[in-house]
Amino acid sequence: MNRREFLTAASTGALAASCAATVPQTRSAPHPPPTSPTAPLAPLPADPGVAPIAWSEAERRAIDAARPDFEVIVRGCSDTAVLRTRARAVPRGLDLDAVAARMERTMRDAGGVGIAGPQVGLGLRVATLLLDYKTDSPHVLFVRNPIIVERSDETLEGYEGCLSVPEVGGLVRRNRWLRLEYDGAEGGTIAAEAEGYNAVLWQHELDHLDGVIYLDRLLGALLPMDEVRRLRKEIEERENAAAGAPADQARRGDYLEGSIAITALS
Hints:
Helices cover 26% and strands 23% of the residues. It is an alpha+beta fold.
């Protein structure tokens, strides 16, 4: 089967079969407890000083669903257009605590380390990231209107997967270092920097906000997830050996959304 045939089969077969269900759970990176309680989301901000936001019919269905998480939008499903649409900016002051809690729950239950608004049916520039997930101190960050303001010329390559494109993965090149900005929940702008696998995760999620999927950036063939896991394991074992880590050191899991098993620097 050539690459085109594989992509077509993945879209019409395995992906279509997942449309009515949540993304299969996997053994994932360690997650801290949810940071916010689950609560109903008001259709409009309560603060009269905050500009109203108009929800689409599909967004309203996602918001009103009687569940503690969101359904993940999978490529090839009926609501998939949101994955290929540039998300709109979030008005400052809009209360998104309930959205943040449900997105984190969705990410955790799906075994991911990141998820963006369009992946849960919300065309908003929001994302949830599990930063430092390869360490013993991972932490969840929910961001509004994130942008990359500077990036390194140096790049790295790693095998990425995506909650919206289940059962497959592939090699992608990303910038090794980023400087970012995003809106604070209480106003103001927050600056951040990211390097290595954290930078890859940021780039993967911010791509979603622009209607871009990692498939658009593939280097070489799209691979079954079992093969991606095998390659990641080989790479991580080499990295651990080079760093002098104990042979029995636990791996961080078969994570999705971004890679990040680094294979090369350029």
